[in-house]
Amino acid sequence: MPDIALAGDFEAGVEAAFAAAVGRHVVAAPQGRLGVQTGAMSLPDPRLHDLQAVFRAAQTVPVSFTLWHAPGHALAAGEPPNAEWIGRLRTAEALLLVVSGEGGLQAAAERVDSLRTEMAVLDLAILEPAQQRLQERLTSGPRVERREAGEQLAIVTRAREALEADRPMLEGLTSQEVVSLRGFGLLCAKPCAVACNAPDDDAADTDTRRAALGRDDWCVVAAATEAELDDLSDDDAAAFREDLGLPGLAAHRVGRALRMALDQITFYTGNTRSVNAWLLPRGATALDAAGAVHTDLATGFIRADAVAADELIAAGSMAALRERGRLRRVGRDYEVSDGDVIQVHFSR
């Protein structure tokens, strides 16, 4: 369950966006000196219910994200943020930047740029002393440690130069170099999705403009209104959403933006007990999928059966696909596609 931190300025409506996304599924509120609120956000997935009928499963388990925020704390230009809060932000797997949608999408984009500038300033405060420490290590200690310090210094220097030049921090870095920066908890190195908190009357138009610009890692919410919909019946809540002109639940829109920012896909497993949705990084293999379900499946991996969920739903059963020769038998290096149903065969 990916850990997602919400952050914005004081006018963004972060608390309302959090409530709109998690609804009643608040896990803990508040906790610690920061007063952190944590909630579980399940991603609505119509395929799960169709697959439940195929497998005659007792239950479904959707993909979930853990969302959290700290009321009263913000990224505000010119105001030093709480150090403990920033330290907690640095531990998150990804960030959901919440910005006000007042004034339209262009104004929202400028607010995002302002937040990213604040994040860059905070990251430079980490990178500058890191450079100094690495420089010192170049002149003392064993040769191996000096060489490692030199390699790390080159990566840290490139990251700092990118931030100072207002370029993406990870631009030009290899995947291995990106991994080497994780220990610093750099905010600008984290996947970021954006929630544009639009006024009710402008929400539909803002979302249309977002889609036209291809900003799939953005979503639009009418946070204050959508946060209250859990108190209504399903029919009344649906009517309100129709009036807003926003598609589906806030959780669906937020979850889609986060998946795009994280560059993740969904795959499914199923049996008579449950049908589960799982997340994987794009480009992951059948062996990775097996490991996501259980380490034993990866350790004893023999092969897997793979089929597109929509094709399985249309066929009605795995047996029907097998009879038609439509069930793919794949090895550990098979690249999983978004929406695949995977059945792993393994030795115990």
CATH topology of the domain at 115-183: DNA polymerase, domain 1
Q: CATH-wise, what's the superfamily of the domain at 115-183?
A: Obg-related GTPase Ych/YyaF, coiled-coil domain
Distance between the termini: 27 Å
Tertiary shape? globular
Average pLDDT confidence is 92
Report the β-strand fraction as a percent range.
Answer: 15-25%
Number of helices: 14
Q: What pattern of helices and strands is seen along the backbone?
A: EHEEHEEHEHHHEHEHHHEEHHEHHEE
What is the makeup of the main sheet? Answer: 7 strands, mixed
Structural category is alpha/beta
> How would you classify the quaternary structure?
single chain
Poorly predicted segments: none
- Bin the helical content: 40-55%
- Determine and state the CATH class of the domain at 115-183: Mainly Alpha
How many E-type strands?
Answer: 13
Give, in spatial order, the strands making up the sheet with the most strands.
Answer: 2-3-5-1-6-7-8
Instruction: Tell me the CATH architecture of the domain at 115-183.
Output: Orthogonal Bundle
- Radius of gyration from CA coordinates: 23 Å
Give structural notes.
With 348 residues, the chain is an alpha/beta fold. Among the domains are: 115-183, Orthogonal Bundle (DNA polymerase, domain 1); 283-346, Ubiquitin-like (UB roll) (Roll), CATH 3.10.20. 44% of the residues lie in helices and 21% in strands. The chain has 14 helices and 13 strands. The chain has helices spanning 14-22, 46-55, 83-89, 105-137, 143-164, 175-180, 203-212, 223-226, 234-244, 250-262, 286-293, 295-299, 309-315, 318-324, and strands spanning 3-8, 26-28, 37-42, 59-61, 64-69, 94-100, 192-197, 218-221, 264-270, 274-281, 301-308, 328-330, 340-346. The strands form three sheets. It has a seven-stranded mixed β-sheet with strand order 2-3-5-1-6-7-8. Strand 2 and strand 3 form a beta hairpin. Helix 2 packs across helix 13 and helix 4 (105-137) packs antiparallel against helix 5.
